[in-house]
Specification:
- The chain is extended and about 60 Å long.
- Strands 1-2 form a two-stranded antiparallel sheet.
- It has 81 residues and is mainly alpha-helical.
- Strand 1 and strand 2 form a beta hairpin.
- Helices cover 52% and strands 10% of the residues.
- The protein contains four helices and two strands, in the order H-H-H-E-E-H.
Length: 81
């Protein structure tokens, strides 16, 4: 009998950590963080939220950048406690 084949894990799945496999819109960010859409735009203007980028006139967010933002915020909260 042969041993079962090892399970291959998609490294992108680990990177995404449950986030969609596409660039996110400002509406997605507002829904994820349960904040008004205007808050997302204010974060961008003040450079305090997740890193976004433009594709033409459209604003998009890389799920990996959003995950890094959340990790950074969690770390800052733990350091403050």
């Amino acid at each position: 009998m042969s041993a079962p084949a090892p399970v291959q894990t998609d490294p992108r799945a680990t990177l995404r950590g449950g986030l969609p496999d596409r660039y996110l819109t400002p509406d997605d960010i507002a829904e994820m963080f349960e904040v008004p859409l205007e808050t997302v735009y204010q974060w961008r203007k003040k450079r305090t939220g997740p890193l976004g980028f433009r594709v033409g006139k459209h604003l998009r967010y890389d799920p990996a950048d959003v995950r890094a933002y959340v990790a950074q915020r969690k770390s800052a909260e733990q350091d403050a406690a």
